[in-house]
Every structure is written in structure tokens, then in C-alpha cells.
Amino acid sequence: MSRDDAPPLPPLLILGVVGLLCGFVSVAGVWLSERSCERFRDTSNCGPLGFPLLLVIVVVTMVLGGLALSRLAMPHPRLIAFLGVAFMLVVVLAFLTGQLSSPWTLAVVPVLTAITFLLANLVARLLERADA
What we know:
Helix 1 (11-41) runs antiparallel to helix 2 (50-71) and helix 3 crosses helix 4 (105-131). This protein has helices at 11-41, 50-71, 77-96, 105-131. The model has no long low-confidence stretch (mean pLDDT 90). It is mainly alpha-helical. The two termini are 15 Å apart. It has one domain. The radius of gyration is 16 Å and the shape is elongated.
């Protein structure tokens, strides 16, 4: 990476902020899908549309994260976004599924996503070293 391609801010700050924003996008997407289901089905349970909606939210979050990291000149932006969102999803599904309707989720999921983006960057760097 040349000096001109260097990120404009410290990489850890970029990863943390983009991770936070992706976490908020995920929470907002789930909240909006629940409100839409309440409006059209009179229940927050989306039924058979639930999984496709979750899949769309995850893909949109990954794409937005990858675009943001790319625009900020981070190396491996799509890989980091993919792993960061995937790691967050695994932790949420494994440990937080029963508490997702709590108000504190609004803070926990974005912070968790920031942490998983930092972890994803570490994994991407380790993979890069393994290739060298």
C-alpha cells in the first residue's frame, strides 16, 4: 500500500466507527421489518418472510460496511465487512436471541459489531500473512 492509498484516519478508529454504524443499520433494519410486519400482519412476527428479511438486512449491512471501508481506503474492505457482520450475527444468535426485544439491544449490538469488525481486521491481516 502506497502512502497515497493510506486510510485518512487511524485504521482502528475507522473499523470501530464503521462497525458501530453497521450495528445501528442492523438494529434499524430489524426494527423496521418488525414495524412493517405489525402494520401489515398485525403481529411483529413476520412468519415465512422473517428469514428472507433477515437475510436482506445482513446483506445490506455487509455491502454498506464494505463500501464505507473501501471509501476510507481500508485494505480488504469486503472481507472485513463480511466477517465483521457474520461474527456479530453468530454472537447474537448464540447468546442474545432471547433478549433482542430489550431496549439495551440498541447499544449492545452496535458495540458488539464494532468489536467484531476489529476482530475481522485481525483475521484478514492473519490471512494476508499466511498468503505471503
